[in-house]
Design a protein that fits this description.
Blueprint: E1 11-15, H1 25-52, H2 59-87, E2 92-94, H3 95-128, H4 133-136, H5 139-165, E3 171-175, H6 182-187, H7 194-227, H8 232-261, H9 269-293, H10 296-314
Parallel strand pairs: 1-3
Antiparallel strand pairs: 1-2
Amino acid sequence: MGKVDRNESDVIFILLGFSDYPDIQIPLFLVFLVVYIITVIGNLGMIVIIRINPKLHTPMYIFLSHLSFLDFCYSSVITPKLLQILVVEDRTISFAPCITQYSFAAICVVTEAFLLAVMAYDRFVAICSPLLYVVVMSQKRCALMLTAVYTWGMLSASIFIYSLLILSFSGTNIINNFLCEYSAILSASISDKHVTETIFFILANFNTFFTLIIVLTSYVFIFVTVLKMNSASGRYKAFSTCASHLTGVTIFFGTILFLYCLPSSKSSWLLVRVNTIFYTVVIPMLNPLIYSLRNKDVKETIRKLMEVPVRWCSG
């Protein structure tokens, strides 16, 4: 196998984005700009709310603050470039920035998948073994889980990146999307791709299905435990504590599996781009809304924060 040409001017990628729909470029720019602003405010706001409210200093909310951090980072890696190519005719990106964008995106995606699995386990312990929750989900164990999640996310991303860097690239390459993603970079290579494709297939499927198994197993036990509860109010309370996370998990993994299963035909390229938009731009905006709208402690903190400027002005 060859090595990538280190002269960045010789290796150029062109992000087509939505250039085949010129009439909607500006409307899309405005929509995605608003979405990005909401994403930044929502996720950073969630982190601040969790930090300032002592009632939210529990494992569930600690994990949620890290989820917001990952969503903020992921959106900030993808959306600014998307906004740029919607209003600028020059859609080129050199090799180093392209790989850098993919690197950070891969770290965020893998880490978030495992973080959602950890959050599912947290809900499993809280509902199925409430008396042991404080012991099982101790501060030390939560810190170890978070360390493991971030470490594996960076390690997985490093393997993905290495599998691309051992390939050779040359000239100008077309990416029929708005971001530098693995399959598009891989298809631009002039090297034998068998080893790289094998690495990606094994590791990507392991990450997806291992985390999905943890989530599904946790919720099977949660569902069985809830059904055994005699109190209707107890069942409602148990389900309500899981509803937000279950919604977020369904959207996240449902979108990933949809992208995996979608055939790579020309007729599906628009569908791929729309689905990728939902996955990379919309989901990071939805998560803070999903977790805040169904949580009375978060809503109470938001209400108190909004009352402060009102009191200040009235005073």
